[in-house]
Design brief:
This protein is an alpha/beta fold. The chain has nine helices and 13 strands. Strand 10 and strand 11 form a beta hairpin.
Length: about 400
């Protein structure tokens, strides 16, 4: 196995001992949800449709009905009571769950997700296809929202496999094969919940890795700290931000619209349904560099993730409109990702990118919030042990 940190590569080679001939090689780099200690027009619109949500965007096509959750389900409540009717009007072929953003497959192999005999996707919890509809609804909405915030559009639909029996207690985005897999849990308490795909936060996390691939200059965040930031982008831009966004947009249907107090008091649990009650990670923390660094990406992602999550909450509390504040954070983060180096990326590089993006987008309106959020986790522009970089003066790049 050959590994490199910058660029990040993990490749398995099978070599004949007698001749040195490489007879097989395969990519082993997969950006996963688990941790080392675990076994485990372009706008999204959500009109008021009573008990229905709606996903629109790439692909066109006639609307069809389906069923999904409208937020990450509560593991302590019956699942059927948390299922809502939705309208999907973004698939060209109303019989197949596929559009310009993603293609859904269920189980082992390329079994496409097709509608029921009545032409709907009204599957119920327990049906493999229900997991696919939930995942499609979550990820398609996320991609369309990110594109409206400035993310580069995918050049092709990404295949997404759910209820994949070859993936146990995990989910991953594979940048080399360009596909996502949401596996099957072995069950609490020794593994993850059986239906990992029901945790929309897991899908949002993996698609957060996909967003890094699409948005960054080198299609990655190379280096040890880059790997940690990769994970924390999935946690914060992916799971936390999308959870808050859905709770704002679907407040009427859910019976409670997200408030700034809810955001402030949120525990920031990643994988709350997949591994209740404390999830896979918690991004409300006081981890700092360098003292809390371990070199493991998921662990060190708590440092960079804590900074980004603190910034997200601070921007909500500083604003008067939660939806706008969430949108501003999303735009800022996506712009920052487009400004990082294409080679080794450090915590300091991302801080610098945030400050540069904020100056271009907002006239540095969030400079103090950004600086404090990162400094609280030991990340500053001062020279020291927080990573390499260009010293204490940000390089200003105008974003077109």
């Amino acid at each position: 196995v050959l590994t490199t940190a910058a660029p990040r590569k993990v490749v398995l080679y099978l070599v004949k001992a007698t001749t040195g001939e490489v007879v097989h090689q395969t990519n082993k780099l997969r950006v996963m949800s688990g941790s080392a200690s675990d076994s485990a027009g372009i706008t999204v619109t959500f009109p008021d449709l009573g008990a229905r949500g709606r996903t629109t965007g790439a692909g066109g096509g006639a609307p069809v009905f389906g069923r999904s959750f409208l937020r990450i389900p509560d593991p302590n409540q019956p699942l059927p009571k948390q299922v809502y009717d939705i309208i999907i009007d973004s698939i060209p072929d109303p019989k197949v769950l596929k559009n310009d953003n993603l293609i859904m497959y269920v189980g082992r192999g390329k079994k496409q997700v097709k509608c029921k005999a009545d032409g709907s996707f009204n599957y119920k919890p327990g049906d493999p296809e229900f997991a696919a509809v939930v995942t499609f609804f979550a990820i398609n909405s996320q991609i369309e929202l990110y594109k409206s915030w400035g993310m580069k559009a995918p050049s092709q639909p990404i295949p997404c496999y759910v209820e994949d029996p070859s993936v146990s207690d995990n989910a991953y985005f594979d940048p080399e094969a360009y596909e996502m897999h949401i596996g099957i849990g072995s069950g609490i308490p020794n593994g993850l919940s059986r239906y990992i795909a029901y945790d929309m936060g897991v899908s949002w996390h993996e698609n957060g890795h996909h967003a890094v691939f699409l948005q960054t200059p080198g299609h990655d965040l190379p280096g040890n700290e880059g790997g940690a930031m990769h994970e924390s982008i999935g946690d914060v831009l992916g799971d936390l931000l999308m959870d808050f966004w859905f709770r704002v947009k679907f407040g009427n249907q859910l019976g409670h619209t997200l408030t700034s107090g809810d955001v402030d008091n949120d525990r920031r649990v990643i994988g709350v349904y997949a591994l209740p009650p404390d999830g896979i990670r918690i991004q409300k923390n006081t981890k700092k560099t360098p003292k809390d660094k371990t070199g493991e990406p998921h662990d060190d992602g708590l440092i960079s993730g804590g900074a980004k999550a603190d910034l997200l909450v601070a921007m909500v509390l500083a604003g008067s409109d939660i939806e706008k504040s969430l949108s501003d954070f999303g735009k800022l983060t996506l712009a920052a990702l487009s400004l990082v180096p294409s080679h080794k990326v450090t915590f300091r590089d991302l801080l610098n990118a945030y400050l540069t993006a904020d100056q271009a987008l907002n006239g540095s309106a969030n400079k103090q919030l950004i600086t404090k959020a990162f400094a609280d986790h030991g990340i500053t522009l001062a020279k020291g042990r927080t990573g390499g970089g260009r010293g204490g003066v940000p390089v200003i790049i105008i974003i077109g």
